[in-house]
């Protein structure tokens, strides 16, 4: 049934075909999840689902198919971790192909159970961590493709156990260290691709693929030297103690450079606030004298009775709705924050927000218009809107301008403490406005110490998981650095299109390391695909790389 135009999902009733030995529904347009009921087809020898639009995780029940000799799930939209029950099916002997999906996590150590497997392909995923030493137990492997992932560390010495390997592709990862000499012992290798990693030092010359320049690829490893003449690498320098000393010098310099680059990027965003546009700020004044008289009934009409369609954010103490106030044929776009006063701390959050916004005005900060009370409350969810690259850059600069004003130009510096996408509201001109000051803190200009009054300090520093600075979770004092950290996470989410709380982030993999591992050579592989809706061009791509 392969290579047709079938659509829809794989029916769970397929488990009734209990005597089925081969199922090939590849190269169709099937969608949905792989049904766990496939695990009941225990007589299957071959399962080929390649080239569809299947999503979700691999059901661990496939591990019940203990007669499988071929499993091909490649070129789908599958995600999550690779189940150890599946990758450890010892009967697999022809092919295990999980390539070109969105798998995350590490390569399970159970891969070592595949002692009879000929071809293993997990390329073009988002796997991370170190290569398991158990790979060396796959003694029958002829083809091993691990390219285009985020593997790190060195090549495990157990790889020498792959005596019959003919193709070994480790390219486009984050592997490092010296290229091990034991790879010379893999005498049947016809293709060895180590390109675009972080290998350094001398390239072996003793045998195997290293004697044939056409069999080995080491492009993109800029710190390699030596090797056979055909590789055209620079000669290795003397190693009389110089290597370790140079590393001791290089590591601090690199770390310092990365830190400096981060500071420069943040300062550049702040600088753009004043140099990019000649923006005139509104003079400071108290809000008490400028409150409009708006009734609760008016707010009901403005928000269509707090319709879920108008919800633009929900937090610990309430929700924010979009509304339009009608005043003498004038339509004013407003954000209405509804506090749930039954929630402990909500009233203090309201007092904190009013105190923070009492004497500040800026085009990129949400301005308080008025306040009223009611017992009504609606709990609904947010619906994000897709923005192109130019719009996201503009909004990022707007947020940077707002932070710059709060940190450096208020009479008493203010730390927002809860910067995240849902607290950045957009007006009709797509200008970003920072909102929700319920957790905000005041800082002493002289000491930088939190000088919030009792209303605000009793709330505690919570922020939002994934966006709050890690040191806040360990009880550290509030500082402007915390807002800068949250701003950095916000930028990563805006341009990578992934939340820091996505299911794919677990263990050592988080949004920050996910982007860091892809930068700079693979950055275009992880950016949000909707950035370039309406067409791409080299100028836009270059702007993203520079950003």
Write the layout of secondary structure elements.
Layout lengths: L6 E2 L13 E3 L4 E5 L12 E3 L4 E4 L13 E3 L4 E4 L3 H4 L7 E3 L4 E2 L15 E3 L6 E3 L12 E3 L4 E4 L13 E3 L4 E4 L13 E3 L4 E6 L12 E2 L5 E4 L15 H34 L20 H7 L8 E4 L3 E10 L2 E10 L6 H12 L31 H20 L5 E2 L8 E3 L5 E3 L6 E2 L11 H4 L22 H17 L14 H8 L4 H4 L11 H9 L1
Parallel strand pairs: 1-3, 2-4, 3-5, 4-6, 5-7, 6-8, 7-9, 8-10, 10-12, 11-13, 12-14, 13-15, 14-16, 15-17, 16-18, 17-19
Antiparallel strand pairs: 20-21, 21-22, 23-26, 24-25
Please describe what this structure looks like:
The protein is α/β, with parallel strands linked by helices and 547 residues long. It folds into 2 domains: 225 residues, Alpha-Beta Horseshoe (Leucine-rich repeat, LRR (right-handed beta-alpha superhelix)); 259 residues, Orthogonal Bundle (Transferase(Phosphotransferase), domain 1). Helix content is 22%, strand content 18%. The chain has 10 helices and 26 strands. The strands form 6 sheets. The protein has a 9-stranded parallel sheet with strand order 2-4-6-8-10-12-14-16-18, with no helix packed on it. It has a 5-stranded parallel sheet with strand order 1-3-5-7-9, with no helix packed on it. Strands 11-13-15-17-19 form a 5-stranded parallel sheet, with helices on one face. The longest helix is centred in the middle third of the chain and has 34 residues. It is globular and about 80 Å long. 34% of the residues are buried. GO terms for molecular function: ATP binding; protein serine/threonine kinase activity. Pfam families: LRR_1, LRR_8, PK_Tyr_Ser-Thr. It is a single-pass membrane protein. This is non-specific serine/threonine protein kinase. InterPro entries: Kinase-like_dom_sf, Leu-rich_rpt, LRR_dom_sf, Plant_receptor-like_S/T_kinase, Prot_kinase_dom, Protein_kinase_ATP_BS, Ser-Thr/Tyr_kinase_cat_dom, Ser/Thr_kinase_AS.
